[in-house]
Each structure stands twice: as structure tokens, then as C-alpha cells.
Design brief:
This protein is about 65% helix and about 0% strand. The longest helix has 19 residues. The chain has 2 domains: about 100 residues, Orthogonal Bundle (Endonuclease Iii, domain 2); about 110 residues, Endonuclease III, domain 1. It is an all-alpha fold and about 220 residues long. Helix 2 packs across helix 3, helix 2 packs antiparallel against helix 9 and helix 3 packs antiparallel against helix 5. It has 13 helices and no strands. The two termini are about 30 Å apart.
Length: about 220
């Protein structure tokens, strides 16, 4: 474990030197808006997420009250560019209504509740899975949790920072055990950056990767070529 922690720290420092980590203050802090945006982003390219969210913002204020009242057909038109728009429209309306009914339209409990309690309440909302809940908790409330998106999942497994067969929770806990709480945001953003530029799902650029000498998968790939 000690050796893996050291390797993880070296990986992190190299990525910090290569990629710019955005400041947390650059992101939307309204937890409901982050929930909605993250639901839209599921199985969707970032550019289409932005377009769909912009369409939604023009349609109605992104608040529980406003979205619970929007006609689902109008919602579908706004989200069409993001794909899976029928399902996402339904989930967003149901989620908005539940936030109104259960929490009087406010998600402020994420700031005052313990991480475990806040996470449990978020996971009980329609359309909210582990990744969505963890993004809200880290980005909005600064809770010590490390969200695992598709890039983080793929990269951490190729780097063998977690077992290849790990599920979401195993990946999250593995990464959280390797890095300090204060680094969770940086780790999340930097593994995404590495995944987008080098460690792609198909045809990863192992030869150019800045951490290839620290990556068991890259070593195996190069030795087989």
C-alpha cells in the first residue's frame, strides 16, 4: 500500500505540472443546478451537455419549482441534443418535484448534514446515482468525497490504482485511500484530463502519456507491440 501511495503521488504531481486544474470557484455552486446538469451529462459529450443546459435555462429558471411545472414535451425539446432526452426529462421533473416535496425546494442539507447522511438523501432522488451525488457533495459543499466518472474509472484501472474489476464504490474508496482529502478535487479533474487527452477508451496514446513509466497497462501494451 505504501508503494502504491508513493506511485499515486508521483502520478498526481506529474499531472499537476502538465494540466491546469480549474479553481473550484469557477464551477456552479447551486446544488440543484449541478444535479440537473449532471443528469443531463449522463452518457453525453460535454459540448452537448452545455447546449442542452443552455436550452433548458432559456426555457425556464433552473429551480425545483419552475422545472416541476414545465411541460415534459418542452423539456424534451430542450434536452434533445443531449440524447436519452425522454428519460432525462422525466427524471429531472420527478427529481424537481421530490426536492419540493421532501426538502421544501432546498438542498441546503448538503452543507449541514454529515457526508453519509447528505449522500443518502441525494441518492434517494430520481436520476441521482453515486457519481451525481458525489459531484454535488464535492463541488458544492466541499465534502471529502472523490467522484468517479467514466474517465476516472478507466484511468484509475489502467494505472492499477484500483483492481480492474472494481465497481464504483471500490474505485472511489481505493482512490480516497491513496490521496489526501484536500487533493480529491485535483485528482478528479486531473484524471479526467489525462483520460481525455491520452488515456482514451479506444486507442490510448500510451507512447506520449506523461505517466507511461508508472502505468502497468502502458508497459504491457508497449512490450506486446
Amino acid at each position: 500500500m505504501h508503494e502504491m501511495k508513493n506511485r499515486a503521488e508521483v502520478i498526481l504531481e506529474r499531472l499537476k505540472a502538465l494540466f491546469r486544474v480549474p479553481d473550484l470557484s469557477e464551477f456552479v455552486k447551486d446544488p440543484f443546478k449541478v444535479l440537473v446538469r449532471t443528469i443531463i451529462s449522463q452518457s453525453t459529450a460535454e459540448i452537448n451537455t452545455r447546449r442542452a443546459y443552455a436550452n433548458l435555462s432559456k426555457l425556464a429558471p433552473v429551480t425545483p419549482k419552475a422545472l416541476s411545472r414545465v411541460d415534459v414535451r418542452d423539456l424534451q425539446k430542450a434536452l434533445r441534443v443531449a440524447g436519452l432526452y425522454r428519460n432525462k426529462s422525466r427524471l429531472i421533473k420527478e427529481m424537481a418535484q421530490k426536492v419540493l416535496d421532501r426538502f421544501s425546494g432546498s438542498l441546503d442539507f448538503i452543507y449541514t448534514d454529515s457526508l453519509e447522511d447528505a449522500r443518502r438523501k441525494l441518492l434517494d432522488l430520481p436520476g441521482v446515482g453515486f457519481k451525481t451525488a458525489d459531484i454535488v457533495l464535492l463541488f458544492c459543499a466541499g465534502k471529502p468525497v472523490l467522484p468517479v466518472d467514466t474517465h476516472v474509472n478507466r484511468v484509475s484501472k489502467r494505472l492499477r490504482l484500483t483492481p480492474p474489476s472494481s465497481n464504483y464504490e471500490t474505485v472511489r474508496i481505493s482512490l480516497q485511500n491513496l490521496f489526501r482529502h484536500e487533493e480529491y478535487f485535483n485528482v478528479h479533474m486531473l484524471l479526467i484530463a489525462l483520460g481525455r487527452k491520452y488515456c482514451k477508451a479506444i486507442k490510448p496514446s500510451c507512447h506520449a502519456c506523461p505517466v507511461k513509466d508508472l502505468c502497468p497497462s502502458a508497459v504491457l501494451r508497449e512490450s506486446s507491440e
